[in-house]
Specification:
Layout (H helix, E strand, L loop, with lengths): L2 H13 L2 H10 L5 H7 L6 H27 L3 H52 L2
Amino acid sequence: MTGSDKELDAMIAEALDAEDRELLDQFGEEPGYFDQAIGLFGGRLGWVTWTVYIVNIAAAGLAIWAGWHVFMAATPLQAIRWGVAALAAMQVGLFMKGFMGDQLLNNRVIREVKRLELQLVRSQARQGV
């Protein structure tokens, strides 16, 4: 977090009443990276994450296997074929990692939107709207 982010957080905390501050303290700090990453494997879309993870491991294994065959190839044509297979497997692995990173970011945004919704509903209930 930059200094301006911390200042903004401090101004938001000052604007909240004691009840809202107490509620936000119940949620605590944002979970760490590893807690968030492990959290991807649960919930409604946990099975998708497990599938992506298994495909990622298979792609890494295939890339290593094909890479080994590139260096053991007897002819340049064999080396090129195995090299293309290794590159394709690495591309699949990178795509899967990108998917998991995007899902991690989506979960963070959804968590913050839900906090905002909660604050909005609580504010409306207090005002009797």
